[in-house]
Design goal:
This protein is α/β, with parallel strands linked by helices and 293 residues long. The protein has a single domain, classed as TIM Barrel, CATH 3.20.20.70. The protein has nine helices and twelve strands.
């Protein structure tokens, strides 16, 4: 069994006042978290650029500074977002910052995300029995995904495929069939708990439904995230079945653990994996597993 690839998802759009003051905002804070998570066992760092008050930031300079700081101080691989708040922009504009950074080795990321379909991302308030928004759609048309696949490959980066439900996985298989994505594909199953309803629930059945439709004739390395929920209840099953783990304060504040740092969360996952007899992949070992240059 391959060693475990751990991805630290350090901030997403999580706000500190939502329960954990350790969510990093600035480039320096994100880079500091990257170094700590690398020490704890992470081989990939996923981040969203943020403004000083935590608001989303999409200026290329902010992304480039963050990636540059990380790469100057660590060998951890970098996976910046496209950001679903850019969902109404054309494909070319959504990918611009990734392609711009890729031209400079000192600022180049290693991955670029591709959510393999469209999904409603309105927040549901279960207690109030109402949706807090009613018109948020993460749009990823076939044309958009084709543009992403072609240009991510041309930039020498690895596409990070995201599957919110079975239809997304079928799209990933189609892109593999068309030769637009190289094997082994890196596919993230995005489970969703609490406020987001667009993915499978963060349960064993929700995970197994994804795995039941994983193509058996393709080389795919899969990882799991629980957007909005605690992933620890599934960690043992994921690790035992050969999957990888994507986890951090960006997805869930982990109040069950008090106010942990991202590095502390990564350390706990690494400890669970070793208890189950599975070693942790370094960034170089993760590259080899994913056959990256």
């Amino acid at each position: 069994m391959n060693k475990l690839i751990i991805e630290a998802r350090v901030n997403e759009y999580m706000m500190r006042e939502q329960g954990n003051p350790n969510v990093p905002y600035s480039p320096d804070e994100i880079a500091s978290d990257a170094f700590a998570c690398r020490e704890a066992g992470a081989s990939i760092l996923h981040f969203h650029a943020r403004k000083p008050d935590g608001a989303p930031e999409h200026a290329i300079d902010s992304y480039a500074r963050t990636v540059g700081l990380i790469r100057a101080g660590s060998d951890i691989m970098v996976h910046p977002t496209l950001g679903y708040v850019t969902l109404d922009q054309p494909a070319e504009q959504r990918l611009d910052h990734i392609l711009d950074m890729a031209k400079d080795e000192a600022q180049a990321p290693h991955f670029a995300p591709m959510d393999m379909g469209s999904v409603n991302v309105d927040r549901y308030n279960a207690q109030g029995r109402r949706f807090e928004t009613t018109d948020l759609i993460y749009r990823n048309s076939t044309r958009t995904l084709t543009y992403f696949a072609e240009n991510i490959r041309a930039a020498g980066l690895k596409p990070y495929l995201v599957s919110w439900n079975i239809g997304f996985t079928r799209y990933a298989q189609a892109f593999l069939d068309m030769g637009l994505i190289d094997e082994p594909a890196f596919l993230c199953f995005c489970l969703t708990d609490n406020t987001f309803l667009g993915g499978h629930p963060g349960t064993l059945k929700g995970l197994q439904a994804h795995l039941d439709f994983l193509p058996v004739d393709r080389r795919i390395e899969w990882t799991v995230v629980n957007f909005g929920g605690n992933l620890f209840s599934l960690a043992g099953a994921i690790i035992a079945q050969g999957g990888h783990i994507s986890i951090g304060l960006g997805d869930y504040a982990y109040p069950e653990l008090g106010q942990p740092t991202n590095a502390q969360i990564i350390s706990r996952i690494a400890e669970i994996a070793r208890e189950l007899g599975r070693e942790i992949a370094t960034p170089d070992e993760a590259r080899a597993i994913l056959r990256m240059h």
